[in-house]
TrEMBL record:
Organism: Mucilaginibacter sabulilitoris
Signal peptide: 1-28
GO molecular function: metallopeptidase activity
Keyword list, A-Z: Hydrolase, Metalloprotease, Protease, Signal
Pfam family, one: DUF4953
Protein name listed in UniProt: Zinc-dependent metalloprotease
Length: 881
């Protein structure tokens, strides 16, 4: 989850858009690092002995007898690989049976220095890297190969060898064989320098190194703490001190120290049967280019991420009986979690059992307290065999739910949910600002443990949903009519949206007297459907393609029912796919929401009273009121030039893309005129502001008005409106009608106050930019279809109809400006005349600064015509897993 606010705070995490857009760059960096054969060289410097990965051929040692290396003084640990510690060195005994077996390797922080602020990598338990390794023998060496799964072909097809020839596995590192074991069924290698070395795959990322000017590992202040072997995994725990020129704690040390854990988990010899994705049902997943099909082109196939659930009793399952899975999905609660929140976190996990019942499984998922050292001395929250909700002592207002999957099949293997302590502050703010008008229990500075616990349970369920493979479903909340959210009967049964994976927070629509008491989302109709679709078990004799056909039939039956609609995150063209919104009409919902904000704002000081405390809480919540109001404006604005996106297959009728109706677009503009451009003076509460505001509120409201105005006039939005007009003629809400409606709201009759003067200048300046500035957006190497998939529209504004219309609009405004008035009013209109004159008679055109080119995942792109998309040039913060 994430949070949008003027302060830029966010909440949640899996996913998402920044990760997707940056993924291709990260992959290139990783591949470059992997395409070198690494050996390990030990050197001595004034700061100590340093192990570094170097390129080249290692010095060949003589292979000794096993007993010469592994002496009686050796400490032995048996498991996946037998491990040995002797005289400060660590050895792996790799059996022949595990040569060329694929193993998932995950490196995490165990402990981090205070003050670490590298985004996404800050706290103990957070993941640094994951890879698949294969231990391969070559002559007298053992090598670690890092296989790639981006392209494939079935081994029975003609293309198999060709794919192998162009998809060579990179070599990460090589080791000399030190000895053969006693029965020659395995080899012995020394891994000491490998784990002590400065290798990105099992150490700090390049971003962290750059942030703290790290130049290498200092072995005089580093060591391997333990290497433990278990039946299917190895756990290597080390303390590493890096030479650093920019320590987050104390630069006098010249270093920064971390504790890291690298888990190596044996992957199944036979991968789980993959499930082919369907863009109409939301799942995280992966894509492969498959050359082994009968298609007359390279075919990109998507597979979803999901846990392996198989019934204990397939016969009973086939009869429709609920059956327990062979292996349950288990989450442990971090022992560092405050005890009072543990039951609520566990309940948020267990709530998903009703969704798994829709897929035919009972007791499929369970939350547990982590065992104590006495109960299980081998248990570790860093162990890749265990999924954990990790609790971070942090002031970050966030929580996120990632997962690690088998790249061969999409099988989810483990997850470490990140839970930041200060998420409670965020929940308090939202719950108060969105519900206090009808909810007396929210009218307080601090909630009871029971109240906060229920909110934690809701967030726990949302994050666990991500770890089950479900992304955000931003289209879900649109399924419920606005007035239904004012019904106690309806909300008691359904909550606020059909999916807990939407950003449908708390019920800001219900009004006093409605009697509504169930105010937040719950696992709903869509969630049950998605789990049924992703986790229903089919006999092993059915291929993924056969399963796809069955599942497509299920999906076709749900098509058109808004309860089961999946609306992806990542596009800004569809007004249904918005975060933090509720109901099927943003104008109606916003009107109710504003009515409640007007009830809440005057009571902030009274409701947040705390003896002997300052007014920081009043200031924080006042900002939240403004932020919530701004959300309503954004929800409404997206309707203007908006398009509905409904993914379909050939056998479904109707449009994939169609424009929002003319009436609704016009209604959106009228709403903005009434609620925003007619200055919302109710936001200026002098009694409350006198406790903390030092003269900022006037400019804040001005900025809010002008920012929304600029959003409306974004050239991409105008281009899409022209596209609508060309296709639908009089059925379209036109740019000419938009300009007329804006002018009616901005240039009202009578003497303009400070807000209206600012707004009028903002309108003229925006029109001037459209007329004279090169606002074209078309990054090199990126197609129109790629941009449109993410709500971006390339446009050559100089050749469009925008400029002629803008020029005509400016002339109308200039002709209609009144004359006279008091000194300030007269000066204002004279200034507008001058601004319009400068716009119509510009100096040489100034090129707009080029926008950064962003890598786009072309495999996610939409081929159908969608009339172009839209996205702010300066979008609000968007961060998630």
């Amino acid at each position: 989850m994430k949070k949008y606010s003027p302060a830029g705070r966010y909440f949640c995490g899996a996913a998402c858009i920044l990760v997707m857009l940056a993924s291709s760059c990260a992959t290139k960096k990783q591949t470059a690092a992997q395409n070198q054969s690494l050996t390990l060289k030990t050197t001595t410097s004034p700061t100590g002995t340093v192990s570094t990965a170097t390129v080249g051929t290692p010095k060949k040692d003589v292979i000794k007898k096993f007993s010469e290396v592994i002496t009686d003084k050796t400490k032995t640990d048996s498991g996946l690989f037998n491990t040995y510690k002797v005289e400060g060195k660590y050895y792996y005994e790799i059996p022949d049976s595990l040569i060329n077996r694929e193993m998932l390797v995950v490196t995490r922080y165990v402990k981090t220095p205070g003050g670490l602020k590298t985004f996404g990598q800050q706290y103990g338990g957070e993941q640094l890297n994951s890879q698949v390794w294969k231990w391969e023998r070559h002559d007298k060496q053992i090598m670690i190969r890092v296989p790639s799964y981006s392209i494939r072909a079935d081994s029975t097809t003609d293309m198999y060898q060709s794919v192998k020839n162009s998809n060579l596995d990179a070599v990460l590192a090589s080791f000399d064989i030190k000895a053969f074991n006693k029965d020659t069924t395995g080899v012995l290698i020394d891994v000491t320098d490998f784990y002590n070395g400065d290798i990105t795959a099992i150490g700090l990322s390049d971003d962290v190194k750059k942030a703290y000017k790290i130049s290498g590992v200092d072995n005089t202040r580093s060591y391997i703490d333990t290497i433990k072997s278990f039946p299917i995994n190895l756990e290597a725990h080390s303390l590493k001190t890096y030479r650093s020129g920019e320590s987050p704690t104390d630069n006098t040390n010249g270093a920064v120290t971390f504790e890291l854990n690298t888990s190596m988990l044996l992957l199944p010899k036979t991968p789980m049967k993959a499930r082919i994705s369907d863009e109409r049902v939301g799942f995280f997943g992966q894509r492969q280019t498959d050359y082994g099909t009968n298609a007359q082109k390279s075919l990109v196939t998507g597979y979803i991420h999901r846990w392996r659930l198989e019934p204990k009793d397939p016969v009973a399952y086939a009869k429709g009986q609920l059956v327990e899975p062979k292996k349950k999905i288990v989450y442990y609660i971090d022992p560092a979690t405050p005890k009072k929140w543990v039951p609520y976190l566990i309940q948020g996990i267990n709530d998903w059992n009703k969704a798994f019942e829709a897929a035919g499984f009972k007791n499929a998922i369970v939350g547990k307290k982590a065992p104590t050292p006495k109960e299980d001395p081998e248990f570790s929250t860093e162990d890749a065999r265990y999924s954990v909700i990790r609790y971070f002592a942090s002031d970050v207002e966030n929580a996120y739910g990632p997962h690690v999957s088998d790249p061969r099949s999409g099988e989810i293997l483990e997850s470490h949910v990140g839970w930041y302590h200060n998420v409670m502050s965020l929940l308090r703010d939202w719950y108060l600002i969105q519900t206090a008008a009808i909810n007396p229990n929210a009218r307080k500075a601090q909630f009871t443990d029971e109240q906060m616990g229920e909110l934690i349970r809701f967030v726990s369920s949302h994050e666990i949903g991500h770890t089950l493979g479900l992304p955000h479903n931003f289209g879900s909340s649109y399924a419920y009519p606005v007035d239904s959210l004012r019904s106690k009967t309806f909300t008691d049964k359904h909550g606020t949206a059909p999916s807990i994976m939407d950003y449908a927070r708390f019920n800001y629509i219900a009004q006093p007297g409605d009697g509504v008491t169930h105010l937040y989302p719950q696992i709903g109709e869509y969630d049950l459907w998605a789990i049924k679709w992703g986790y229903s078990w089919f006999p092993e004799n059915k291929t993924p393609q056969q399963e796809k056909e069955i599942l497509a039939g299920w999906t076709n039956k749900k098509a058109g029912n808004p309860l089961y609609y999946y609306g992806r995150q990542g596009t800004s063209i569809d007004p249904r796919l918005q975060n933090e919104d509720l109901g099927d009409n943003a104008m109606k919902a916003g009107t109710y929401g504003i009515a409640n904000l007007k009830r809440i704002l005057p009571n902030l000081e009274k409701w947040t009273y705390q003896k002997d405390e300052n007014f920081s809480d009043v200031a924080e919540l006042y900002n939240e009121v403004i932020g919530q109001f701004n959300r309503y404006m954004g929800h409404v604005t997206t309707n203007i030039g908006g398009m509905n996106e409904n993914f379909k297959t050939y056998d479904q009728k109707g449009a994939v893309y169609d424009f929002v109706s003319k009436t609704r677009q016009h209604d959106a503009m009228l709403f903005l005129n009434k609620q925003l451009f007619q200055t919302p003076l109710w936001l200026i509460n002098k009694a409350e502001l006198s406790k903390f505001d030092n003269g900022l509120i006037l400019n804040r409201i001005k900025a809010l008005q002008v920012t929304v105005l600029a959003n409306i006039l974004n050239p991409s939005r105008l281009a899409r409106m022209y596209d609508n007009e060309a296709k639908n003629n009089t059925k379209a809400y036109t740019v000419a009608e938009l300009f007329t409606d804006i002018r009616a709201g901005v240039f009202t009759t009578g003497k303009p106050d400070a807000f209206k003067r600012n707004l009028q200048r903002g309108y003229i300046d925006n029109m001037k930019n459209l007329l004279n500035t090169d606002l074209s957006f078309s990054p090199p190497g990126v197609t129109s279809a790629q941009l449109a998939a993410f709500g971006l529209t390339p446009i050559n504004i100089a050749l469009s109809d925008i400029r002629p219309m803008v020029r005509a609009e400016l002339k109308k405004i200039d002709a209609g400006l009144p004359k006279g008035g008091d000194a300030l009013t007269a000066a204002h209109f004279a200034d507008l005349h001058l601004r319009i004159k400068e716009a119509l008679n510009p100096k040489p055109i100034v090129s707009f600064p080029s926008l950064p080119t962003r890598s786009l995942n072309t495999e996610e792109l939409i081929k159908e015509d969608n009339g172009g998309g839209y996205m702010n040039c300066w979008p609000r913060t968007m961060v998630d897993q």
